[in-house]
Design goal:
The protein is an alpha+beta fold. The protein folds into two domains: 7-13 and 266-577, no CATH class; 32-231, no CATH class. Helices cover 33% and strands 24% of the residues. It has a 20-stranded antiparallel beta sheet, with helices on both faces. Strand 5 (190-194) and strand 6 form a beta hairpin. Helix 1 crosses helix 12 (371-385) and helix 9 (265-275) packs antiparallel against helix 11 (335-349). The chain is elongated and about 75 Å long.
């Protein structure tokens, strides 16, 4: 895999490939219902968040009838990403309820849809029910229509749509309810219709609501005086800091209601990995030639940064010291403090999209290299380093400072990749080489004797699923700092300790700083054409886990990321995707 062969590389891969995809997808499911190509329409001017329960664990809100520059930017960026004339139209499937005929936006939805919409989930444990719909709508798939995600056995929550014509909206809801075989019922004096499968349809305070019965009950409770998300403390603080020009935004509260359901492990793991346990709001901001995702997280005064989307300046400093020729560079601040949480998130994420590789007619795998096997191998060292025991904290986390991940080389033969961790205790990090190697050997890894110039200790470990030997080394960098390195071969370790030049002086670094603006220094840079080329070189673009993402990866030229403190307990991590020019 062209990212680092270490487990930390899977963190960067998930961050670069899945974080933008999930944030865009979750916001776009309601942000694109209008196709972003229709004329603006008057509505009730009601913010859907005002009728969403304050206890909601996830909420996405959007302008579904944008106008002016927002409309043109959204349409242009959508076409650049998808190479389709109407890039958002498939997401109309979000309103395709059971039994209903295929919808036409112009005929069925445009006559009554207002300017704003939202969708909420009462618990993140039901978020997995939305993934099939998102994949079908954004990435395409089989010709079979995806199942409507809400219902008695599905997601708990609702889609809430502003209306420009309440009568026409009610007619649409009644028609959909009839197709679903729904019966009339009421809750707290408000009539709505519900199907035997638990899908509910209703007009509540001029807002069209479609979701689970508990979802519509939550909206009715809020309309009748219950606490609303719009006025919840954390949500209000985050929205007060939101950027201008937002098309859609995604709010998540990982500390909200949960269940033991394993179906949402991937989603909750992703949120833990990105934002820790903090409330977060991700804003989607389209502009000419680029797409920005501003991930704002809420933290208590004096609290340490948590999650990958943190504004820790040590991350930017760690990136600036990586090799100048890197096409992938990631800086992580205070790794020792966040590592156990990152491990927990990665374990949950390992099941997200980790489909089995292609099989032969006899049912055996046609390839020994797959995303699933690579992730398992990459997570293994990080699991040891981030173990929660007191002994592991002493042996590993206690000496860890900031860390950097890099990959360089334009072909597989030239590839160099590693994670570089600054050591606060040379004696402990040197001892950690043999301790980590021993733990991996105990778990099935095969040890190799290696000798790397400039290191005080070095061991090679062959891990199942990883096509190269992982070199674990400790030595002094050119600046005299002791660093612990997990490298993709000897040359990677040497480049990590003594790079010919630092990325701080590279054009990619200054370009990333310019793209991020707001004085943000990059802690993430990635050149997508090189990444895709290397994935192709090892056949991973055909892996079912990522094959449907490949057209989108080809549409992106660069990714830059970095964070800063906005004040008021809010920190921002901004991701900016540079887009290839659309031919359409």
């Amino acid at each position: 895999m062209p990212a680092s062969p270490t487990s930390a590389a899977s963190r960067s891969a998930i961050r670069t490939l899945r974080a933008p995809a999930l944030a865009v997808a979750a916001a776009a499911i309601i942000g694109a219902l209008a196709g972003c190509g229709s004329s603006a329409a008057p509505g009730s001017s009601a913010d859907p968040a005002t009728v969403i329960p304050a206890s909601a664990s996830l909420y996405a809100g959007a302008s579904v009838r944008p106008s002016g520059s927002l409309k043109s930017a959204a349409a242009a960026d959508g076409r650049a990403l998808t190479h389709q004339a109407d890039p958002y139209l498939r997401l109309l499937a979000a309103l395709q309820t059971p039994g209903a005929p295929q919808l036409s936006f112009k005929r069925d939805v445009a006559p009554w849809l207002g300017p704003d919409a939202g969708v909420y989930l009462s618990s993140l444990s039901s978020a997995g029910s939305l993934l099939g719909l998102l994949q079908q709508g954004l990435l395409g798939g089989s010709s079979a229509a995806p199942s409507f995600p809400f219902g008695a056995t599905g997601a708990q929550g609702a889609i809430v749509l502003d209306t420009s014509d309440a009568t026409k909206a009610r007619n649409f809801l009644n028609a959909a309810a009839t197709h679903a075989g729904a019966h009339t019922t009421n809750y707290r004096g408000v009539a709505y219709r519900a199907s035997s499968g638990g899908v509910a349809f209703g007009l509540v305070d001029r807002l069209a609501v479609i979701g689970s019965e508990s979802g519509i009950h939550g909206v009715i409770d809020t309309v009748q005086g219950g606490a609303s998300l719009a006025h919840a403390g954390g949500y209000a603080k985050l929205m007060a800091k939101a950027p201008a020009g937002v098309l859609a935004h995604l709010y998540a509260n990982p500390a909200g209601p949960q269940s033991a359901s394993s179906s949402a492990e991937g989603v909750t793991g992703l949120l833990r990995l990105l934002a820790g346990s903090s409330e977060a709001n991700v804003s989607l901001v389209p502009s000419s030639g680029s797409l920005a995702l501003d991930a704002d997280t809420l933290s208590a005064p004096g609290a340490s940064s948590a999650g990958l989307l943190s504004s820790d300046p040590e991350g930017a400093k760690a990136l600036s010291e990586l090799p100048g020729e890197s096409w992938l560079a990631v800086g992580l601040g205070h790794l020792g403090a966040s590592l156990p949480q990152d491990v927990e998130g990665l374990r949950a994420l390992s099941a997200l999209g980790a489909a089995p590789g292609p099989t032969s007619p006899e049912g055996t795998s046609t390839s020994t290299l797959s995303i699933k096997s690579l992730l398992a191998a990459m997570i293994a060292p990080l699991t040891v380093l981030g173990a929660p025991s007191a002994q592991a904290r002493h042996d590993f986390a206690s000496w860890m400072g900031s860390a950097g991940i890099f990959a360089s080389g334009s072909s597989l033969l030239e590839l160099k990749a590693a994670i570089v961790i600054a050591s606060k205790s040379p004696a402990l990090s040197r001892a950690a080489v043999t301790k980590l190697a021993g733990a991996l050997h105990k778990d099935g890894g095969s040890l190799r004797t290696v000798s790397i110039p400039g290191t005080d200790a070095a061991v090679g470990v062959a891990l199942t699923g990883l096509p190269v030997v992982l070199d674990i080394a400790d030595g002094r960098a050119s600046d005299g700092q002791t660093k612990f390195v997990l490298g993709f071969g000897e040359a990677s370790v040497e480049a990590a300790l003594n790079p010919p030049s630092a990325i701080a002086a590279a054009p990619s670094h200054s370009a990333a700083s310019s793209a991020l603006a707001e004085g943000i220094q990059p802690s993430l840079t990635l050149d997508f054409p090189t990444l895709v080329s290397l994935l192709e070189g090892v056949g991973l673009t055909e892996d079912p886990s990522i094959s449907k993402f490949v057209p989108y990866l080809r549409a992106v030229s660069t990714l830059a990321g970095g964070g800063h403190d906005l004040g008021g307990e809010v920190q921002r991590f901004r991701l900016v995707l540079g887009l290839q020019k659309s031919e359409g």
